[in-house]
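Re: your question from the hallway

Yes, I did run it. Sequences:
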Amino acid sequence: MTTGPKLRLGKTLVPGLLAVGLFGVMALITLNAAFEPMTAAAGAGFPDDVSITAELGYALFGFDELQQIGGTEPFLAAVLLVAVALDAALDASLVLAKREEGGEPVAALSSAGEEASATGGPEPAVTDGGTDGSSAATTDRHTDTGGDSR
Amino acid sequence: MTVDVQYYVLLSMAVFCIGLFGVLTRRNALLFLMSVELMLNAANINLIAFAFYHGNLTGQLFALFTMALAAAEVAVGLGIILVLYRNFRDIDVTVPTTMRW
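Structure:
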């Protein structure tokens, strides 16, 4: 059972040689590639008198006419899509954090409130190790250790 | 004085390969998640370095979106690890085998 990020050494590191080999090959290719030097003459860098943060904001919300650095696409549609994606991820994490107690789903954000404090405080969360059914502090409420029966 | 772009590429390759090393050798789901984050951030280094190289802000903006998607991925990934622990009392990725073909 994994109880912590214990470092495993030995034979388990053998597949990692693949990553080391890949790095060697890619480094060889990169160091032999012909990149131009990073100078303003070669077109690198941004003008000194322009606020990069402001330019990023204008590009994010599609204010093309305010931009001073040319060639940046408007990203308004992408911002909206990412907002939806983050919203969906939040919902997904809440669904995944839901647990069952006695066949009833319990949302992660629900609170036992005063009922729990009257009976000696909230039960330990299942993710904290649960009560394991053997604890003497269990009340008459249903206290399983969570998880689906497999 | 600015650092040449091939050294940024080299750095991002190193970060990517460290992440790949972690994915290939680790069994703890949390370390898996961290390794995937390293691989994602290697791509960010490249995007920002080449945005500077070409004098264009699109790469920096794209890196911002990659970070947002990485945040979404972590939210779902941590939820999955939570369920993994709840069902198996363990976050070793080799333990759940029911979806293995």
